[in-house]
Design goal:
396 residues; 20 strands; 36% strand
Length: 396
């Protein structure tokens, strides 16, 4: 019995060893075609183009009212009424607030009473002079008496003028009890409530003229010179030729503002710390869509770069911080070109250096390429040229 069991175990062990050998041998066999049997990598290519590219600058901008007026009273007293709705459009000379007029009305009444007294004194002096003039000429009275009456008349006339000035001042102060807007625009939130005591230093609210609206932004020295050259007025003044440099505005949500603007202010000097100069532009603002304090980006065409070399964005890759473009050699092999990028122009990049004219550029499968790799180039259909100016990117 033991002999039969031993033989069975031996046969099983032999079967296992045989199966293992088969598996090892089958694992050593290569699968698929041998290395190097694959053909050239198919790639899409385009030929670099040359064009006159308008170069545009882009700057961060903030909005502000074209005119901003702080509404402050010229009279002191208790605020008794607010006559406008906060955030609404107000007109020039519209009453916004009212101050208690009773003290000022009392002063006016007193001044008018004093004016009446002065006028009465003047009338009496005039009567005396008219009566005594012929008597003095007839030597019926002393000449010195007439002279005194003439002087009294002059004093009465001066008193009347002083009283009239007091009445005018009192009326003016009474009018100041109605606090009016000096400009047309949008009135802000009231900073002082009804019932508060106000004076000439109190700011009641602010009114901003919003149509047109001002856009402030800062540009570098070189960009300022480029804009001035673009205006090319011959006067050396950017403001004179501002209409030759139309500005566009992109809002914070990415929308392009439908109206164009123009430059209305150039600061007198560059900021010594930032090396930039402040510019203000005016944009039409129908409906007061834009409000002070908003952010956006102002764009302007600063120059035209003639015969610039363009390549699609898809053709540009980055390796260890350097921009690279693959081109196809005469024997259909990939060649790496380290390039310097200029501004973006639509879906293309402007190439500053590193690429020859009329080069065949690869636009796909860049991750699979290496220097000298065989390729099978297939020309891609050309796309329509962009119409918007090229935009300089920060840091390039």
């Amino acid at each position: 019995m033991k002999s039969r069991k031993t033989q069975t175990s031996a046969f099983a062990l032999a079967a296992v060893l045989s199966a293992s050998s088969v598996m090892l041998l089958s694992g050593c066999k290569p699968s698929g075609p041998p290395a190097g049997a694959q053909g050239p990598l198919p790639v899409q290519v385009v030929t670099t183009t040359q064009a006159d590219v308008p170069i545009g600058g882009e700057w961060v901008a903030t909005t502000d009212g074209y005119v901003n007026a702080q509404i402050q009273p010229q009279a002191s007293g208790y605020l008794i009424r607010q006559d406008y709705r906060e955030g609404s459009q107000v007109a020039k000379d519209q009453v916004l607030f009212e101050i208690d007029p009773r003290p000022f009305q009392a002063v006016l009444d007193q001044a008018e009473g004093q004016l009446g007294q002065a006028q009465a004194q003047l009338q009496l002096a005039q009567i005396n002079v008219n009566r005594d003039t012929p008597l003095a000429e007839a030597h019926a009275i002393a000449k010195s008496q007439l002279d005194t009456e003439v002087q009294q008349k002059a004093q009465a006339e001066a008193s009347v003028k002083a009283a009239e000035a007091s009445v005018a001042t009192a009326k003016l102060n009474l009018g100041f009890c109605e606090v009016r807007s000096l400009i047309s625009g949008v009135a802000g939130q009231a900073t002082t409530q009804v019932g508060n005591l106000v004076n000439g230093q109190s700011v009641l609210t602010s009114v901003s003229q919003l149509d047109p609206i001002k856009i402030y932004f800062s540009i570098s020295d070189s960009e300022y010179l480029a804009l001035t050259h673009r205006a090319s007025t011959g006067h050396g003044d950017l403001l004179v030729g501002a209409n030759k440099v139309p500005l566009s505005l992109s809002l914070s949500n990415g929308d392009v503002y439908p109206h164009k603007g123009h430059i209305v202010f150039v600061d007198r000097q560059l900021n010594s710390q930032t090396g930039a100069i402040r510019i203000a532009a005016a944009f039409p603002n129908p409906g007061n869509i834009l409000r002070p304090g908003q952010f956006g980006r102002v764009k302007a065409e600063t120059e035209v770069r003639h015969h610039a070399i363009l390549v699609p964005q898809a053709a540009v890759g980055e390796f260890q911080g350097q921009q690279q473009v693959y081109t196809v050699t005469a024997d259909n092999k990939a060649h790496v070109n380290t390039v310097t990028l200029g501004p973006q122009f639509g879906t293309d990049w402007v190439i500053e250096s590193g690429l020859a004219e009329n080069a065949t550029v690869i636009v796909d499968n860049l991750q699979k390429l290496r220097e000298g790799a065989p390729v099978n180039p297939q020309f891609k259909k050309a796309e329509a040229a962009p119409t918007t100016p090229a935009t300089k990117s920060a840091g390039r």
